[in-house]
Amino acid sequence: MVAFAILIFLFLGSVEGFSSKSQPCTYDKSKICKPALATAAFSTISFLLGAITSVVSGFLGMKIATYANARTTLEARKGVGKAFITAFRSGAVMGFLLAANGLLVLYIAINLFKLYYGDDWSGLFEAITGYGLGGSSMALFGRVGGGIYTKAADVGADLVGKVERNIPEDDPRNPAVSSVLRFWKSKLRFFHSDCHRVVSLFSGDC
């Protein structure tokens, strides 16, 4: 994340040769816009904010999902209706929380950046685009990292069964390689990446 932030700062800052002087705006030569170095710095900050918000959203989503699954399982003993209500309310809480979390950070960032940019809306919009990029990058690594983790868990379970218990590969006596467990591990991986994508999608559109 830090490496990407440094690259963003270097690329954006080198557009005008790391100039710290204000220059005429491209859309209106009669107006003066903020220097490219300031835009590069604020874009880097917004990238880090988006990445951190995405990571926090993924963590909160996984916490809520873990507790919600346990409560839904307990309520399922009383009937399908109560289990559905618990699952539906838990999903609603999680969805609203993640969206509100991302929007709150985006709103605060825009207002803080506006204190510096003032009427330079072009510079403000260019600086805040890093927020969506940060959220999207964390969503990408969350999905890829989750796939690597689940595959390593499957291979490790196969090896443990073969070495310690002399159980063939994909044998039903090894609970770690059962199709049901693999199904839920894959669902967990996609769910974790979707928590990141909740932030990255609307922040990118903003």
UniProtKB/TrEMBL annotation:
Please indicate if the UniProt record lists rRNA-binding as a keyword.
no
Cellular component per GO? endomembrane system; membrane
Per UniProt, subcellular location reads as: Endomembrane system
Q: What is its main location?
A: membrane
Span of the secretion signal? 1-17
What EC numbers are recorded for this enzyme?
7.1.3.1
Question: One Pfam match, by short name?
Answer: H_PPase
Task: List membrane-spanning regions.
Answer: 41-62, 83-109, 121-141
Has the keyword Magnesium been applied to this entry?
Answer: yes
A GO MF term: inorganic diphosphate phosphatase activity
**Top enzyme class of this protein?**
translocase
What is the protein name stated in its UniProt record?
A: H(+)-exporting diphosphatase
User: Which species expresses this protein natively?
Assistant: Gossypium lobatum
